[in-house]
Automatic annotation (TrEMBL):
The keyword ATP-binding does not apply. This is Pseudouridylate synthase. It holds the Pfam family PseudoU_synth_2. Residues 22-171 form the Pseudouridine synthase RsuA/RluA-like domain. It comes from Spirosoma validum. InterPro entries: PsdUridine_synth_cat_dom_sf, PsdUridine_synth_RsuA/RluA, RluA_PseudoU_synthase. Transmembrane segments: none annotated. GO terms for molecular function: catalytic activity, acting on RNA; pseudouridine synthase activity; RNA binding. The keyword Aminoacyl-tRNA synthetase does not apply.
Amino acid sequence: MQPQPPPISLAQPLPLLYQSADLVAINKPHGLLVHRSPIASDASEFAVQLLRDQLGQRVYPVHRLDRKTGGVLLFALTEAMNSTMQILFAEGKVQKTYVAIVRGYTPDEQTIDYPLRRDDGTIQYAVTFLKTLQRTEVPLPFGKHATSRYSLVELTPTTGRMHQLRKHMAHILHPIIGDRPHGCNKQNKLFKDQFDMNTMLLHAQQIEFTHPVTSERITITAPWQAEFERMMRGLFGVDN
């Protein structure tokens, strides 16, 4: 059985990134489940319930983020808007952009066109566009190497398969740091030992779509969470 992330406790309200009459977006912390799940019985706090209590009204998550992923998470405030946004996501009319810190030097750009298998055996078409933003080599011995190399990548999925980005990065041998079970356990241990870091370094940075009621082009961007920013500063010398 894979180790589960420790339960988190939120002393502060969820940070709101965008709010209108029918939509609201938060910057979801790493480690927070979107909603209750039978496979995560250790969790006691969930984004749906926390946001509902914070706003004093019912909320509807229109898409999902992995528990270990931080960043933009969008909710509808009415059933009608929830249905409409679900359709936009299903039709690929919502652009999602992620950033991740991965092992090794990635190519400048790459299209990862690699089908993924669901738990029930179904094979699903899946495509991710990768763009390398930065590379770094740090004096951190690993295995037979005197240094370690990492890349900051921008990932744009055109499909929304479960764990798509995590599986695609593992497939091209540049796993996301902190990913279990798809990542590199030796690298994950290195980061835990050297940096006391066990957060998965995947961040949902931006969502773009045309508002279905107002026709306004909406762009919602989430600043990095604290652990992601700490590793960006330590590895790349970059602040949020």
